[in-house]
């Protein structure tokens, strides 16, 4: 691929106008589509496929290998600068399916050599992009961290726009002016449209700040107060993943709830006892079915409900504020002692700070919490790793090509 092609940044997935900021618009595909190779390479591949199907002959042509790798690297980069091992395998599987003549003897399924070549090629491709002096924050942020004990900063939860470039013609200084304007706009009423436009425009600048500086939650709240509303949590999640947060999460909850409740009833032991108590509350219509699923899911996965949820009944605000200080990630469910009454409030707490109240239901709070995890670039709580894996990979279907054995077992039960 020529440097002109690279420098144009005129790919299918990117836009560089002020009206449409230059970030990716599609997530990694369910099935990777092999790009259209150059005419000469296509002729050689078609001839190779004919020989393979008629005589079982494999194609070994350095020119073809080089041309294929160049085009694959460009296509992969449209989705991510740092493909995971499973994504690379996804590419190779699609390549061998379309061009079986490219199989290699002596390697696992004829694909191992291609996996290694693509990984190496992506490293070269990233170096080429850096050499062209194209603004690419997701590469720039790693210039000084490649030898760091913390490793390279890259997407870990299927973020499509982990670190997008600033809109064409914009600088950090002009973006900060927009941020300051936002501080004024959030104080006005009936101003959602302007706030959304400015939040969209400043997204790359905000994302660079969150990922590279890793500011404390109170600092983010001070600089970007608009982010801490339900509407903007959802919008920020969409900017990062291209996925509609509420529509995806809650529709999957609707789809899986009947099956999940059936699966939960089969659980025995201590976890089964806790689940039975929740299901009894559900049968007596004391809690919402989605909330019951969340409360059953956590012990079903062998984790502690108390690590995520804390219930309060008729307690003072002072007691709650005191408890806030010790919580890294927590959902507080406030209610009265009246049986069957909905919560009076559901609050999300991150790093001892109340980031959002008025979530109405536990399930809604879990959905919005996932929005904060992405928008603030947070890690999942280690003691709730399976619960959050279900949220991400089963309910949001992000990076679900590879799941842990425990979550895969649950997924198989749901699809059975």
Structure characteristics:
416 residues; mainly alpha; four-stranded mixed sheet; 18 helices; disordered N terminus
Mean pLDDT: 88
Read across the widest sheet, the strand sequence of neighbours is 1-2-3-4
- Beta-strand residue fraction: 5-15%
Number of strands: 4
Based on CA atoms alone, the radius of gyration comes out at 25 Å
* Number of H/I helices: 18
Helix and strand composition category:
mainly alpha
Sheet having the most strands: 4 strands, mixed
Helix content: 40-55%
**Secondary-structure element order, as H and E?**
HHHHHHHHHHHHHHEHEEEHHH
Shape: flat
What's the end-to-end separation, in Å? 46 Å
Structural notes for this entry:
With 416 residues, the chain is mainly alpha-helical. It has helices at residues 3-8, 39-55, 62-79, 85-98, 112-131, 137-140, 172-185, 192-201, 203-213, 217-223, 230-241, 245-264, 269-283, 289-300, 317-324, 362-375, 385-395, 405-415; strands spanning 309-313, 329-335, 345-350, 353-356. It has a four-stranded mixed sheet. The protein is flat and about 75 Å long.
